Every structure is written in structure tokens, then in C-alpha cells.
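Dear support,

We are seeing what looks like truncated structure output for some complexes. This example has two components. We would appreciate it if you could run it in full and send us the complete C-alpha cell output so we can diff it against ours.
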Amino acid sequence: MIKPQKIDKNANLNNEEISRREEIAKALWEQKEPDRADIKGTLELIYLSFITLLGNRELVEDDLKEIKAKLDDCADRMIEIKEKSKRKSRK
Amino acid sequence: MRKTKASNPGKATITNSRVVEPLTNINIPKTDKKCGSCPPPVPRCPNQKAKKITSRVIIPDSEIASSIGGPVSIEEIEISTMTIPNVELDDFKGDFTYESCKAKNVEIAITLSISSSFSGTIHTPWWMPDLHPSGTVDFASFTETQPLGDIEFQSGSISMQSPKMTMGPFSMTPEPIRRTIIEEVTAEKVQMKCTSIPLDSPLCKTLGVCLPMLNPMCPNNVITEETNIERMDSKNISSSHIVMNNISALNIEIPSVTTKGFKAISTTPITITTSKNTFGPKVTRTGDAENADITTVMTLKIEKVVMNVKDGMEISNIKGKVTTASAISDKLDINLVLKRIKIKGLNLCGMKIPEIEVEF
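Here is the complete output from our reference environment:
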């Protein structure tokens, strides 16, 4: 098992984002039914965690908005694919 | 010294005796046929009833001031099984000390039920916030058995005390006691009342001419109504050894036995390894433990165990029995004094006097 590095996981995040990240993480931790996995929440969590890896956030605010929109679209698409995969076969 | 056989005796006199049947050849006062103060003798010898007794000599009172004899050697004394139904020992107390004590090959079985709680932080990968789990895990009871080896006890003492200790029946079977020697036997103040000697032959009735007994006297039964011995001493009774077999003391009851404080030390290193799952049956979880399926291997290493019993042990209401196959005494040396012995109805069965010599 790879031991995670101890890093500042709240770097570059404002209080609202920190709370949101904790909220999403708690919801995912307590999620007991895989079918209801919060895909959107998971991608949002990755987005918020990604911000903590940045140097100067202000320099890439526009890029962050772009990547956030793409992650949201990606989440919607993943949910569609998941639901599509559960439809009955036409045959 | 001249010896005369009683079948052809010289002049002899017997005083303080009485012949039941009247004497005819010499002038002696007639006596009471019913023996006056002496009751009829009670025959107890096995073959006495079959023998018809026509007459008896009755000796109402005879005394021996003292007698002394010995050494007496007895080749063999047979004693039957001795049984005492019940033995009570008042104020029984037994104190014993011991230098060392070792409990050998001790095994310890510990039944445990573990309850654990936890709280802390789990550092997650970069894209996850750190987790702060908390909860409880309770394991159902389980038993671990481990050998402890030998346990050394420090020196100590054992006290057995009881207001009353009982046991019974108590029995033992002595082997015949061989080669017993009594250095000296003395008896003082021997009194015999109503000694009765049967007279079978009509030829020997004349007192003073012929002794009033058979001569030679066939085996006869001599009866003494009562014999009193004031004191009988047997000095230095000794025997080479005594063997008792099948010694048995049953139903022993001792209310309490106590020991002083002691310390038990085991220096046997012990390693207890047990594997437990935080999930599955016999595990109760709460909080974040419900999301953790972990197998733990717990290793407990014990280098030394010291058990300090500060105030000792008290064992109550001890019940049991003691049996011994045999007990051997190397040597027996005792002095025996019997006082005020009274013997009722002493029968000397088959007493035989083949020849009497009278010295003048």
C-alpha cells in the first residue's frame, strides 16, 4: 500500500471550498450503496483537491473554470453511460 | 530335697478351699454342696458342655501379693483388622513449613472479551481529504490457552487448624508382630474369686491324702468367676518392626486450612499470538468501524509472571480420605502399665497338669 504524502490539503482553498470538500468526502465515505455513487461529487472532489496542488491560483482562474465545466460535463456523461448500460437489451 | 509325686503324696493341707462333695476317709467338717457364696461356674470353653462334671473344687478367694517374671519372648502376635468407626480430634492443629514449592507444567487458559474504541486521522491520497474516523469494535469472548511451564513458589507454611476434625471409619490390618520381647512383667495384688476346678475321678476325693484333682490331670477347664489385678507392668516391650497394611481413614473432614502469604513466579517467556477480524460474526462495530474490514494479528509477549498472594490461601471444608497400602515401623519400644484389671468369668480351657511334685 502506497503511503500518501503529508501535504497541505487545504492550500489555495477558501473556507467555503474547504467545507464543500469535507461535505463531499463525508458523503462518499458514508455511501454504502455503490449504485448510488455520487459521480458528480467525486469529480468535484478531484477538482477541489487539484486546486490544492497549484502554485498561484490567481494565475489560472480562467483555466480552473474551464476544467470545472469539463469535469461537470464529464460527470453528466458518465451518469448517462451508466444508465445506458443498465437498459434492457433490444434483442 | 525330696520330691513326691501327687499320685502318692505325703501329708498336704489345702486351706481356704472347699470340696463340693463330702469327704469320707478323714474327719473334715462337711461343706455346703451348693458352694455358699460362689455362684455356679459359667462354662465358656467350647468343649465344656459335652463333658459331664461330677464334682468340683471351689476356691472362693485366692490372692497373689505380687508376681514378677521375664524376660518374656513372644514369637508371634497376631492382631486382626482394627476398625474404629469414628474418630474425633479436638482442637486439631497442624503447622508445616516448606522450603520450596513448584507448580509443574502449568497451563493457563484465559478467556477474553475485547472491547476497543478508536479515533484518529487517516491520511488519504492528495485528491481525498484526510479522514478522521472514530468508533468501536467489540470482539466476542474467546479463549487462549498457553503453557506457563513450571512456577516456583517461595518458601512458606501451611497451617491446618480446626476446633474439631473428624474421620471414620479408621481401619488397618497389622501383620503378625514377630519376635516381641518383654523384659519384665510384674503384677500386684492379684485376687481370684470363686475358682472352680472340676474333679472327674472318684479316686481323688480325699483331701490331705490325695490332692483333690486328677493326677495326672487330663486337660480340664478351670473357671474363675472374677479376677482382679491391681496393676500389671510390662516393661520394655520391644519388637524388631511392625507392619500395618491397608490403612484407611475415610470421611476426613477439616473445616479450614490456611497458608501464609506466598509469591509465585513464572519466568517462562510466553508469546500469545491471536488473529482477529474487525468484521464478520462475533464482532460488533459502531461508527467508522463499520467501514473498516481489517484483520489484525495481535502478539502478546510475556517475559515474567509474578503472582503475589499477600494474605495466603484459605481452603474451607476439606473432605476426603487417606489410604495407605502399608506402614512400616522400624522398631517398637513401649512400656505398658495396666491398672485395676477385672476379668469376669475367666475360663482356662483344657488346663493340663500331667505331673505334680511336692517338695518337703
